[in-house]
Amino acid sequence: MKLRKLGLTGALALATSVAALIGGRAFAEEGITVYNAQHESLTKAWAEGFTKETGIPVTLRKGSDTELGNQIVQEGANSPADVFVTENSPAMALVDRAGLFAPLSQETLSEVPEQFRPVDGHWLGVAARSTVFVYDKRKLKEADLPKSILDLAGDSWKGRWAASPTGADFQAIVAAMLELKGEAATLDWLKAMKANAKPYKGNSVAMKAVNAGEAEGAVIYHYYYFGDQAKTGENSANVAQHYFRNQDPGAFVSVSGAGVLASSKKKAEAEAFVKWVAGPKGQEILKTGTSFEYAIGNGAASHPALVPLAELQAPKVSPDKLDNRKVVELMTAAGLL
């Protein structure tokens, strides 16, 4: 099998390792299996770019963060997956705590800054998304907007805002709040949310509700707005975005992760894929594509339509500290699940 350039000085060693593992073209054609909880179009573009460059086929199996994370834990050492890719980091932390990731090489880890990967080096970030408050610009002016996401717990916001509480996106935001503010404050906020917010299934549906005047605002991720604007703008014509900034929990930036499963029999090929996605060519797809997620690789530029990451003033939250199990417990206690 032919393996072309994968990155820096370790490319030759990685190619040699791959060649030693595959031992023939039949194995190369079999390729690797990726459990994909990221947007299908984005991971498909990554897979196609990687296969074109390396000749290693990639099979994608789609599911949600929570679904696939729990599935990997259940499969354990028998998982057929070689790589796990997520939208948010809590599912990565779940699999890591179960001891099911193989350590990544320092060369691969070095593709992204330290704040976008866990201390143990078992996976890394490959993209990011920012929390935002989308609002109906016909009804709200800048002075009317909440200064903090915590303000949405106030009586003045009762019945006025929306969210998608059952989704992994929103639960990652709650996980960040839990890490930053603690269990008691988070539970109080969730109980207030139960009384104040209108639940919708999906961030795009919540934004559409704001656009239609059903709610004055919604807590979602930024790229839903940019994605709709890049298409017809039909579901965001009356919508604007508010960034909380100031290290507020509402300024949380969620990291999308990728890691190699310890059970994989094709670890060299699997790590080559993770490294390619986190490296310059994988990150270029974020800049030029239509996912509108942030590129986070060293020196990588994001799509020019996005507010630069450095300007978001996001709070510092280690991606391996987010506890989705506790989040589900608290949201259930608050009556949101």
Automatic annotation (TrEMBL):
In its UniProt record, a GO molecular function of this protein is: metal ion binding
Which residues does the record give as Fe cation binding sites? H39, E87, Y223, Y224
Say if the entry is tagged with keyword Transport. yes
Xref: Pfam families: SBP_bac_6
Q: Which UniProt keywords apply?
A: Ion transport, Iron, Iron transport, Metal-binding, Signal, Transport
Which terms under GO biological process does the entry name?
Answer: iron ion transport; transmembrane transport
Q: Which GO terms describe its cellular component?
A: outer membrane-bounded periplasmic space
Q: Which InterPro entries is this protein grouped with?
A: Ferric-bd (IPR026045), SBP_1_CS (IPR006061)
The residue range of the signal peptide is 1-28
Family classification: Belongs to the bacterial solute-binding protein 1 family.
The protein's name in its UniProt record: Iron ABC transporter substrate-binding protein
Per the UniProt record, the source organism is: Aureimonas endophytica
